[in-house]
Amino acid sequence: MKRPNFIDIKSFDEFSKYYWYREELQKICKNLGLEYVGNKIELNKIIENYFNGVKILHNKIPKNTKTNTNSLSLETSVIECGFNFGPKFKSFFVDITGDKNFKYTSDMVATVKEVKYSNDLCFTLGDLLDIKNGKKVYAKYNNISCEWNKFLKDFCADNYNNIYSNKLKVASKFWTLLRNSNLLKQYSRQFIIENKNKIV
Hints:
The relative contact order is 0.11. By secondary structure, the chain is mainly α. It contains 9 helices and no strands.
């Protein structure tokens, strides 16, 4: 099944049946006047909101340069302090926790992005620390953007595909077929067998 143009898609469920590259998602969001900065997960969320009647406009996220760690506390709003994952905020968390090896987690990153997109002024640095410590859940990291890499890895690992001399090139052709279909975006030998005659 050929992937339709975005303008012909009527729901997010229909949209989700097809694979979209990050650059394509950015272009769709930009053309709609929506926020177009972010990874695939974030851009998909913006498009999902669009189909649900909520427009997350570009530059909605407030910019604030207040990053002096002396003025920060656990009650400080993530948005109002212009939180980022730079050294100044890491220094704040090191001071608060006493953990000199303090590291951000992927769920913290996903949470801050969601907080900024939803403009949640009530979410604090203390809440963010609770995310790290597993005391709260706000947004979970999703590794959906690695579908092509996983497909390629599985394609190359399958001995059936040793008949192909240039595995990367051939895998790319199979991936294009799969990406433009409404099938689950994961490797299967059955898909390769059924579609090998379509690879030129």
